[in-house]
Amino acid sequence: MQPTGHIEEVHGIAPGQLAARLPGWTTPKVIRGLVSGWPLVSAARESAAHGVAYLKPFDRSGMPVTATTAPPQARGRVFYNEDMTGFNFRREQVPLKVVLDTLLKYHDNPDAPSIYVASTTLDSFLPGLSADNALDIGVADPLASIWIGNRSRIAAHQDVPDNLACVAAGRRRVTLFPPDQVGNLHVGPLDFTPAGQAVSLVDFAAPDPVRFPRFAEAMQYAQVAELGPGDAVYIPSLWWHHMEGLDAFNVLVNYWWRPVPAWRDAPMNALMLSILAVRDLPAAQREAWHAMFRHYVFEADERTTGHVPEHAHGLLGPLDETMAAQLRATLRKRLER
């Protein structure tokens, strides 16, 4: 089952122009050749060995990385085991140089185990790499991470931050779905996940239409792109993304950010608290709380506060860091009762 939609492509954006464009985007974009001038991209284009040789001198921190490995029969799919009592991979702490040498060792082996170093903070583990491969994305304090591995298939999941993912080595296939497809992607547990985020249980390489009948509907909204070295993709907050590393040596550098102050809480906390407090209420009460959430959260406007003197708005008005701290303290006390 192949998606028919394609991620919108924007062309002619030089790295120095990105900061003026990206902060206004709200839909996915592919930016061809955005980081083609990076030294890392140039080295990896020569060969995997050149790419590894470029990375090794930046491994000065001495800290081991978390390497995820799965047997060859997993075919790169980092996922649950057959009965969802655990996972089909293991994690271990190893020096990055060992990971890189192992990737070269298995480079030409079609039956290689899956090796995957995920979301490793650049400045902590590879100091100097981001300065040597700089990119101004026009947002404050983005978190830059690197992903290194061989062929991999990462189940469709979503992240709260916005994401700019830049391919530095190898090819990637990216399949995106808008947030409202959550009901058609057959998403697994919220609190028992392969890597921290709930994932679609559908194997995109062999979807089971009997077990996952709504997936065909999701595919009607899918957007796909294949990215090569130097290309980048912008993934907005909460867009579902299925990521495939297509080659025997893949490197991705991504930037995460949220356009809200750091003192604001994580929306997932609100979702989990709502499951605790609202989901299992009688139907009539759930509908009443549905109206409350619309009024105070999702459709808050002049009708919410217009009749209240401004000095008395309290939580109905704009939050600041002090009010947020007070609200968090109140919630903590209530949850501890």
TrEMBL record:
Supply the InterPro entries for this chain.
Cupin_8, JmjC_dom
Q: Where is the signal peptide?
A: none
Q: Which domain of life is it from?
A: Bacteria
Any Pfam family matching the protein = Cupin_8
* Domain JmjC: start-end pairs: 115-272
Q: Which SMART domains match?
A: JmjC
| Protein name, UniProt field | Cupin-like domain-containing protein
